[in-house]
Every structure is written in C-alpha cells, then in structure tokens.
Design brief:
The protein is an alpha+beta fold. It has helices spanning about 1-45, 60-70, 190-205, 215-220; strands spanning about 50-60, 80, 115, 120, 125, 130, 135-145, 150-165, 170-185, 210-215, 220-225, 230-240, 245-255. The longest helix is centred in the first third of the chain and has 45 residues, at about 1-45. It is elongated and about 70 Å long.
Length: about 260
C-alpha cells in the first residue's frame, strides 16, 4: 500500500512539474510575441502615414496682378546678360543692319542688360493658361556689346513657358521660366539663337527658380503632448491647368518631428 502511494505521489509530482514547465513556455512565448508585436507597432508608428490631399486653385488674375505690381515700379526689373563675351557679329562692316540697333566702337558705357517691360509694341507681358500649359509672352528691351558691331540695342518679346516642379527635399513648389522663342524687332535673324541663349542664361541666373509655394506654406505642426509633435508634410504635388485656373493637388503625410 505504501509502495502504491509512493508511486502515485511521484506521478503527481511529475505531472505538476510538466504542467508548470508548459505554462512557463506558453507565458514566455506570449511575452515574446507581444514584445515583437510592440516593436513592429513602434516601427509602424514612425513611418509616414498618408493623410489625404488638399487642392489649391490659382487663377490668371492672381499671376497677372503680381506681374502688374512688379512691372509698375519706377525701376522695372533689369538683369545683366550672362556670357555676352561669346556674342559675335555676323558682318565686318561695323553696322548692325537694323534701325533699332545702334553701333559704336568698343565702349565701357554699353550696358549688357535686359529689362522686362509691361509692353513692347502690341505685345503685353501676361500669364496665360492655354492648352494645359502656362505661357508667358514677355516684353523686353536690352543692349550688349558685340564683337565687330559695338553696342547693340534690341527690343521685342519672348515666347516663354512656366514649368512647375516639386522639390520634396526643400518642400517647395518651384517654377522655371523657359524661353521657347525670341521675337526681336528689326534684328538680324542670324543672331536670334545666340541672343536667346544669353537671355535664357540671364533668367536662369537671376530669376529661376521661382518659389510658388515654400516649405512654411505647405507644412503644418500638430503638437500632441509636450515633446511629441507631429507634422504634415507634402509628399507629392500634381498640377493641372483647367481653363483659366491652375489646380494644385497636394498629397500629405503625417510624420513625427525629430
């Protein structure tokens, strides 16, 4: 009887030990799984979270009002021409061959500049939304000193286009003015290409890029708790020209502030 009782107690002890070990491993496993899920959750929390989109509409009237204000100043915008040393005349007679271009000997008084005008002849500087593009006829006049020709004056208008590009690093929507064609009044056609290159260089150095929307205009800070701040950040900007409107679709995401 005692032997039987002893065997029964030994069996019970082993059962209890096995059950205890099973519970230990189950609880430990659950703890590890929960810890893994917590780490994954924290990893997910630091990832950007899509936050929908905002639509901003800008019309022709706004852009043209800005142009009016800029070109109505006492001193209109004037930019130095880049690389004028590369310009050479097409003839050796010392004459420009046009009524508006004036020639002289090499003179330090010849300003190599281009000045934007409100209008020149029948062309008026303005922004136009057409065929899904932003086009800008730009009236101007200028002068430069050319080899063999001396100081040459020119006047006309440029067929330009505004190209938009979103810079995600700087969080800015930039515009670049691109000259498609120059229309020079009473000017030798053979020099149009060279002058176009120089005018584009002046615009790239002094005007491009133009910031349409800056980082502080695009972002928003969301204080949650002291020391815990979230931020709305622009992930992408798509633009579309519809009739007389420029529509900007700004796609946002939520990110923590470092």
């Amino acid at each position: 009887m005692n032997i039987l009782n002893s065997k029964l107690l030994d069996t019970l002890r082993r059962s209890v030990l096995a059950a205890t070990l099973c519970c230990y491993f189950i609880v430990s496993g659950c703890t590890l799984v929960n810890a893994g899920e917590g780490s994954q959750r924290r990893a997910r929390e630091v990832r950007p979270i899509p936050a929908g989109e905002v639509v901003v509409i800008l019309n022709e009237q706004l852009f043209n009002a800005l142009l009016d204000a800029m070109l109505s100043q006492d001193k209109p915008p004037t930019y130095p021409l880049a690389g004028v040393g590369r310009i050479s005349g097409g003839g050796g007679n010392g004459q420009s061959g046009n009524g508006s271009g004036s020639t002289s000997g090499a003179s330090s008084n010849c300003a190599s500049v281009i000045t934007l005008l409100r209008e020149a002849g029948e062309t008026r500087t303005a922004v136009r939304f057409t065929d899904g593009r932003i086009v800008v006829p730009v009236a101007f006049r200028g002068s430069y000193e050319a080899a063999l020709l001396g100081c040459v004056s020119f006047e006309g208008w440029a067929d330009a286009e505004i190209v938009l590009r979103f810079d995600p690093e700087r969080q800015a929507l930039n515009a670049r003015v691109v000259i498609r064609r120059l229309n020079l009044k009473d000017f030798p056609a053979m020099m149009n290409g060279v002058v176009t290159e120089v005018v584009q260089g002046a615009i790239d150095q002094r005007l491009n890029p133009i910031e349409i929307l800056r980082a502080e205009q695009l972002a928003a800070r969301l204080p949650v708790t002291p020391g815990n701040v979230l931020k709305l950040r622009a992930r992408e900007i798509k633009h579309q020209v519809v009739q007389q409107e420029l529509r900007l679709r700004i796609f946002y995401e939520v990110v923590p502030v470092d």
